[in-house]
Amino acid sequence: MKQINLSRKFLSTDVIEAISFIWLQWRKQKLPLAIFIGLCLNLIIAPVVYATAEGTLERRSAWAIGILGLVTLALIIYLFFVVFQPERF
């Protein structure tokens, strides 16, 4: 029985190389990965904020509130670890 590699069949070699490069470099460069994940999370948060405001906010304002919420949450998590594990910092 011949084994078929589905990832090679559906993804081009450029995409596979990019994914493997990101996978190998994520420990060295955490800031770009954190920014990318934050923007991806904002894709979920911004429409929720926009829908809750019932159209009274502009889309840019909803995106700004979403990013502000993510930054606030990240700061809370960071300060939580700094307070309870100060020897690491």
From TrEMBL:
Alphabetized GO MF terms: P-type potassium transmembrane transporter activity
Organism domain of life: Bacteria
Alphabetically ordered keywords of this record: Membrane, Transmembrane, Transmembrane helix
Ranges that cross the membrane: 31-50, 62-84
InterPro entries in the cross-refs: KdpF
Cellular component GO terms held in the UniProt record: plasma membrane
Identification of the protein by name: Potassium-transporting ATPase subunit F
Phylogenetic placement of the source organism: Bacteria, Bacillati, Cyanobacteriota, Cyanophyceae, Nostocales
